[in-house]
Design brief:
7-stranded mixed beta sheet, 286 residues, globular, alpha/beta, single chain, 16% strand
Length: 286
């Protein structure tokens, strides 16, 4: 059993934190080929304005998990703070990032980041703030610690606002098994999610790849974004999707409003395709 989140942490769902700690222990991402991870990184960070960072920039990875994105960011900056509410996740990240001497680790959450106001040059949080009780509050906490002119990058689950109606309907149907599976003991939910990856994710992803190679538009084909990914990534994401109790989704206008309310401007969404929604923003003065 993984270590529980610290009692002092704010804006967290303890059960969700425990499950993610176990997930990153089970899937520490080390078997994924470096070129596959690099493609993922390029997708998530495509809106990030690297040119806005000063030399020796200091920033945070909020909800670092296994440290899979920090490994790409650390060589580009002066100092990186990896934060996670799960002690077990931090243990995994420390192992994976052992070769980087400019990273510090913090058992902290989106409700209690251990930094002074306007003290950091940038921050990113990918796939995290939709798993906390108060997502808008988490965005505001990011805004508190980033200096004017600093950069924030977020990835938040979308509410299918750029998809046809039936696409959202399929997702709604999947919510029924997710509600059940996410409340199972971790070992059992892990096994069920693995089975889903093998019997649903893998066949649909490979069919989408087959159609894509024959010139068929697979933009709205379910799970088409996984068509070039390996089974390990599919297993990880199936556990993420069906094993997580707390999950929220947002439209593009809702994300824009959260960022604006938190003091950000120059909001730029990823337009090239999934994952949705990836967005960068610049902290305004004042």
């Amino acid at each position: 059993m993984g270590s529980p989140p610290s009692n002092h942490l704010k804006n967290v769902d303890p059960a969700t934190v425990r499950d993610f700690g176990r997930e990153w222990a089970a899937y520490d991402q080390s078997p994924i080929a470096a070129d596959e991870l690099a493609v993922h990184f390029g997708q998530y960070f495509s809106p990030f304005p690297w040119e806005r960072l000063p030399e020796g920039a200091e920033g945070f990875d909020l909800g670092c998990g296994s440290g899979r994105w920090a490994r790409f960011v650390a060589p580009r900056v002066g100092k990186l703070h990896c934060l996670d509410a799960s002690p077990q996740a931090l243990e995994t990240a420390r192992r994976n990032l052992a070769g980087h001497d400019n990273i510090t680790f913090h058992n902290a959450s989106a409700g209690d980041m251990p930094f002074a106001d306007a003290s950091l040059d940038f921050g990113f949080s990918l796939g995290v703030l939709h798993h906390i009780p108060d997502t808008a509050g988490g965005v505001k906490e990011c805004g508190r610690v980033i200096r004017p002119g600093g950069v924030l990058l977020l990835y938040l689950y979308y509410r299918f606002d750029n998809r046809p109606w039936w696409y959202g309907g399929l997702w709604a149907l999947s919510e029924i098994p997710r509600w059940i599976i996410s409340r199972l003991p971790f070992g059992l939910k892990h096994a069920v999610a693995y089975a889903i990856a093998l019997t649903v994710y893998w066949p649909l992803a490979r069919l989408a790849g087959w159609l894509d190679r024959r010139g068929v538009d697979v933009t709205n084909f379910p799970l088409s974004n996984y068509r070039w990914q390996g089974l390990y990534s599919l297993k990880t994401d199936a556990l993420d999707r069906f094993g997580t109790r707390l999950e929220q989704r947002f439209t593009r206008p809702e994300i824009t409003k959260m960022l604006t309310d938190a003091g950000f401007g120059e909001i730029r969404f990823r337009e090239e395709g999934p994952p949705f929604w990836c967005v960068s923003a610049i902290r305004r003065a004042g």
